[in-house]
Amino acid sequence: MSKSYIEGVSYPTTPDWDTERPFLTGQIYLDIKVTGQRTGSKSSSIDTFKNGDVNRAIGIFTPSVQELLVIDDLLFAMTGIEGMYISMKRGRAKDSGIVFQVDASMDLALQELAKRILPLCENYMVIHSFVESRSHFKHGLVNHAFAATLRTILQDYHAMVAQLEHQFRLGRLSLQGLWFFCQPMMGAIQALTTVVQKASAQNLSGSAILNLLQNQAAAMAGDNAARSLLEKLSQYASAAYLGILERWVYEGVIDDPYGEFFIAEDKTLQKESLTEDCNAKYWQQRYSLKPGIPSFLLNSAETILTTGKYLNVLRECGHSVQVPFSENAKLTNSGSDRRYLECINIAYNFASAELLNLITHKYDLMARLRSMKHYFLLDQGDFLVHFMDTARDELAKKPAAISVEKLQSLLDLALRTSIAATDPFHEDLTCCVERTSLLVQLDTMKKMGNGMSDLNTESESLEGDKSNSDISNQSDSISITGLETFSLDYKVQWPLSLILSKKVLTKYQLIFRLLFHCKHVQRELCGTWQAHQGTRGVKSLGTTISGSYVLCQNMLHFMQSLVHYLTFEVLEPNWHVMCDKLQNTESIDEVMQQHDFFLSKCQKECLLLWPEILQKVEKLKSICLQYAAAIHWLIPSVSVLDSDASKINSSESVVRKEILNKTTNRIRSRHRPLANPVWRSSDEETFKTTLEKFEEEFTEQMKGLIIALSSRSQSEPYLAHLAQGLQGLGNNL
Predict the structure, then answer these.
(1) What DSSP element (H or E) covers 265?
(2) Which of 52, 74, 104, 446 has the fewest CB atoms within 10 Å, counting from its CB?
(3) 367 versus 647: which is more confidently predicted?
(4) Distances from the Cα of 659 to the Cαs of 231, 662, 677, in angstroms?
(5) Statement: residue 731 has pLDDT above 80
């Protein structure tokens, strides 16, 4: 194999005899050094001069004899052979062209006519040399086809020269007649020479040759013969290229031995990367467009690329499919006939419909998406309630101390004992534990560009460096447990990984982490509310407990409003919009586009792309958890204190006692019991101070959140819904 003429492509070596035996190509005549005088004789077309004196100048002959000698030499020169009185000279540069010169002693009128024909001879030499050089393997299929077509044209040219020589031998051809017969082809041969010279000078191959032919044909609008010839050349030269294109759009195979096709394949990218890497570029870069697309295919390049990609997916799924092929489906490029564009569109529609049908029916795409919605978007949350109850102790540990295997077994148990058991894909659901909080993960993904390139730039500019430091400080100040880092994962197989890639799953996971933690905070506040219900009527707690009731109610209202906004005002409406659009999609690319748009919109409206607002929400949730923990430590002491509790109505006392006991038992199971469960008078003042601190912090953060939401709601109207739901919370305390 030889060194590649085109980068990355190997080709066979041209046999040595092609250069060592110059008589095979006529190269011997080009290598003859012109000495100024002939040392041998050459057969003349006139018997009278067959044995004549060749050392004499042509000027010693009469004009009639000179005309015969010139015609004889011109016929040889038209096939690239030097004559007695018409010589060849080559420039000093290696790539310089060959110039024909006539004997200076020739009759001036004959000289003028001969010089008119000599450009045709010179052009023939240029074309002949190009044909011989571009027939080598290294120049590619398009150059091979182009050279073969030029060789066919030269064969017709040789036939014409033979006919002219026959007429000359019969004595019927004059120099004026020779010019008459040569004149019609001068324009076409000159056009071919121009193309050949440009192709040689720029070392063109592949689509560049086709574009050159197309452009030159368009530039010859005033010469119908030359334009038709160039269009015919373009048609034949593009036949090999269209053969490569046929295999791609009909079979999804790149059969391009010389790297001329405008679609490149990167075999280092494997489909497995879709489920392993958030930045996987398999679908975008496994097959991609290269520079140098033929001008007649430029508008259809994306369609051609997508057609082959679809067929490749079908083949990798083991689904043997080939676009229906007929004689009319053969791709040809003939002038104004654009039938090949229709064939390409037919192939695209077929491949798109086949792949869409395969994924939506055989692999049941919509059922998969509904399954993802049940788990990641908490569409059916009964399994989550059961899981949070059973995994409470494990999730309370530090992330490094959590047993993922134990969590997985508890998750499987929750799935089997809930309505999720009816989901045929519930076994594909797995759990995982992240190592950082949601805010830190978002900040890291934004910096690394892992699927968060659509992060709102306005929010970033408003935060500046302060926001990044706030994220770090907050993550350091809060003790991270499994409740903040728990997430779900999902097993996805090919070809569904095209749609449910690692990047897409990460977006689902971010939304789930937000919802899961909100549910956790809401459950803690509900437990606090239940604890408060068990203390109603216990007078020994004083009036401070009433303020705690109000604060707990406001926190519950905040969390309920937030969860309602996330689920019923963001996720559900956007889900139904996406489902409606998916019913009308015609390709997998449209499915991926609509699904990605759904997730990106949900991320944005769920505040995940608004770090400044999300920080305030996380801070409020942190305050709620701290308040709930404080109340959980306090309430168990109430059960042993009050001597006035006996004055409560007996039936009411029984109910409240039962509530208190249940709440106390649940709380004690979550928290270490107090060493001294007796309510002292000093505890009243401590509780009051602590409550005021929680009230102040909650009110301040709530006001800041409402202001932030209101200020952004003008450009982002969806934020106004959440702001309206929270109005008044900052003023009710």
Answers:
(1) strand 263-265
(2) 104
(3) 367
(4) 92, 5, 18
(5) no
Q: ω into residue 495 within 30 of 0, thus cis?
A: yes
Give the whole-angstrom CA distance, residue 728 versus residue 706: 9
| Bigger pLDDT: 537 vs 269 | 269
- DSSP assignment of 567-598 equals IIIIIHHHHHHHHHHHTT--SHHHHHHHHHHH
Q: Is pTM beyond 0.85 here?
A: no
Instruction: Report the relative pairing of strands 287-289 and 429-433 from DSSP bridges.
Output: unpaired
Residue 556 CA to residue 729 CA, distance in Å, equals: 11
**Amino acid code (one letter) for 351:** A
Tell how strand 486-490 and strand 429-433 pair up. antiparallel
In terms of C-beta density within 10 A (0-12 exposed, 13-18 middle, 19 or more buried), how is residue 430 classed? Answer: middle
Rg (CA), the chain: 43
Write out the DSSP string of 173-197.
--HHHHHHHHHHHHHHHHHHHHHHH
Helix H, strand E, coil C: the string for 2-64 is ECCCCCCCCECCCCCHHHHCHHHCCHHHHHCCCCCCCCCCCCCCCHHHCCCCCCCCHHHCCHH
What token pair was written down for 536? 């109603």
**Amino acid present at 51:** N
In the numeric block, the tokens 């107090």 are attached to: 674
Q: What is the pLDDT of residues 237-293, one digit of tens each?
A: 888 898 899 889 888 888 888 888 999 988 888 888 877 777 778 888 889 998 888
β-strands 86-90, 98-102: how paired? antiparallel
Q: Is the dihedral of CA 482, 483, 485, 491 positive or negative?
A: positive
Q: Which CATH architecture has domain 501-642+681-732?
A: Up-down Bundle (1.20)
- The token pair at 460 is 């970033």
Maximal CA-CA distance, the chain: 152
Residue 484 has pLDDT above 80, yes or no: yes
Which one, of 428, 460, 424, 426, lies nearest residue 442 by Cα? 460
Percent of the chain with pLDDT over 90: 30
Q: Which residues pair with 489 in a beta bridge?
A: 430
The answer to whether the CB of 106 falls within 8 A of the CB of 66 is yes
Contacts 24+ apart (CB under 8 A), 670-678: 670/392, 670/396, 670/632, 671/629, 671/632, 671/633, 673/636, 674/633, 674/636, 674/637, 676/637, 677/636, 677/637, 677/639, 677/640, 678/637, 678/640, 678/641
For 330-378, the three-class secondary structure string (H helix, E strand, C coil) is CCCCECCECHHHHHHHHHHHHHHHHHHHHHHHHCCHHHHHHHHHHHHCC
How far apart are the C-alpha atoms of 360 and 592, rounded to whole Å? 13
Direct distance between the N- and C-terminal alpha carbons of the chain, in angstroms, rounded to an integer: 85
Q: How far apart, in whole angstroms, are the C-alpha atoms of residue 82 and residue 99?
A: 11
* 693: β partners: none
pLDDT for the residue 303? 93
CB 195 within 8 A of CB 134: no
> Distance between CA atoms of 81 and 495, rounded to whole angstroms?
65
Q: Give the integer Cα–Cα distance in Å for 287 and 297.
A: 17
Question: Are 398 and 480 contacting, i.e. CB atoms less than 8 angstroms apart?
Answer: yes
What is residue 97's DSSP assignment? P
Read off the amino acid at residue 627.
Answer: Y
- In the chain, which segments carry CATH 1.20.120.1900? 501-642+681-732
Q: What is the spatial distance between Cα 164 and Cα 78, in angstroms, rounded to a whole number?
A: 11
Tell which wins on pLDDT, 321 or 4.
321
Where does residue 97 fall: left (phi above 0), alpha (psi -120 to 50 degrees), or beta otherwise? beta
The stretches of 436-501 forming alpha helices (DSSP H) are 438-448, 457-477, 482-485
Return the number of other C-beta atoms located less than 10 Å from residue 258's C-beta. Answer: 23
Sign (positive or negative) of CA dihedral 358, 362, 367, 372: negative
What would the two tokens of residue 492 be? 């996805």
* Tokens at 175, concatenated: 């120099």
For residue 55, the model assigns a pLDDT of 53
